[in-house]
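Q: Got a minute? One more chain.
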Amino acid sequence: QVQLVESGGGLVRAGGSLRLSCKASGSIFSIRVMGWYRQAPGKQRELVAVITSGGTTNYADSVKDRFTISRDNAKNMVNLQMNSLKPEDTAVYYCNADVTVVAGTKLDTFEAWGRGTQVTVSS
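A: Always. Here it is, folded:
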């Protein structure tokens, strides 16, 4: 069993900052990509930022230059530093990971999701 647990959400005023963290636990062999997605009310879930085990990052245009994703491979953790927050950043933020586990005599790779953490930005 693999679990992703997010922390760090909350209520902040526009222009403020929040830091989200996510830790993956379980019998993990490796994690290739970790990242953050978000879903606002009435909208589809969208990519915010992802980072590979080698440190390559990709950001949604809407958060570039405001959000920074980082990762600790040894701890299976990913963080999202969010600065200059805007009301339109309000959403439930979900941690995502491309996890490989040992399944018997072979490796099995699947996508894991956290339960989400609420971020609310007031104007």
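A: Residues 14 and 42 are 21 Å apart (CA to CA).
Q: Perfect, thanks.
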